[in-house]
Design goal:
Elements lengths: L1 H10 L1 H8 L14 H4 L1
């Protein structure tokens, strides 16, 4: 899932989706794994 999301971020699809719903201002630059949960 992380790799897929990072791919969408890299190619601009993620930003387009957020912009469509007027929430593009909250976009993240990279998907990261929460090491506290997944170790």
């Amino acid at each position: 899932v992380q790799a897929s999301l990072n791919s969408l971020i890299k190619d601009g699809t993620y930003q387009q989706i957020l912009d469509k719903w007027s929430i593009g201002f909250g976009a993240v630059k990279e998907s990261k794994r929460n090491e506290e949960i997944f170790g």
